[in-house]
Amino acid sequence: MRIIAGTKRGMRLLSPKGFDTRPITDMVKESLFNVLYNYGLPQDKVAADLFCGTGSLGLEALSRGAKKVRFVDDNPNVIETLNRNIAKAGFADRSKVIRANALKVGAAAGPGQAECELVFVDPPYKMTQDVGADSPLAKLLEIVCGQLADGAIVVTRTHRRTKLLDTYSRLKVIDKRKWGSMAVAFLRLDG
Predict the structure, then answer these.
(1) CA–CA separation, 49 vs 107, rounded Å?
(2) In the prediction, which pLDDT does 24 show?
(3) CA 125, 82, 53: angle at the middle one, nearest 5?
């Protein structure tokens, strides 16, 4: 895994040993960020990377000019590797690492913190098997809605066979892409 564009282009990311990860390929990451550029993202925006793992998407956003990224994950071993990746990239001043269950804290925008304009939601595929109105993913997206700026974009990665609803709370699916076994949905917050 590596950062593919921006100020840290080509930087290899560290991975925790002994963990089953689902790294996003360079091709998918490039395509995902090409879609985001159409919406003026991530340049100068506040973002969050939920279920962040090694921080691949959030670090890519920082390399491409995001103002700040909140990284949320509850695995202490992953957090250690994430902190090393952030330090290696020199992004400590623009990063906030939150060790917490993303299902409970969402994008972790507390009092006085800027609302997010971009959120990456990359849960384990198992969690995206049920994506109905009462599913864990739907409940997470409802929490995240209260932490977003108007017009914010949420990017969700699922298995390609997952059929998302058209809307979750005030988030509306505006684009879907499929690559190999994965799918990426782009949702926008409607005011």
Answers:
(1) 8
(2) 87
(3) 0
Q: Is the pLDDT of residue 186 over 80?
A: yes
Quick check: is 135 in a domain? yes
| Domain enclosing residue 64, as ranges | 26-189
Is residue 124 in a domain?
yes
Cα–Cα–Cα angle for 100, 171, 60, nearest 5°?
A: 55
Give dist(CA 150, CA 189) in Å, integer: 6
> Per the confidence metrics, is the pTM higher than 0.85?
yes
Mean pLDDT of 125-131: 87
Distance CA 191, CA 178 (A): 28
C-alpha 110: how far from chain center = 18
How many distinct structural domains can be found in the chain? 1
State how far the Cα of 14 lies from the Cα of 35, in Å rounded to an integer.
26
Average pLDDT, the chain: 93
| DSSP-derived secondary structure letter, 12 | B
pLDDT 10s digits, 97-125: 999 999 988 887 766 677 999 999 999 88
**Could you give the angle at which helices 76-89 and 56-63 cross, rounded to 10 degrees?**
20
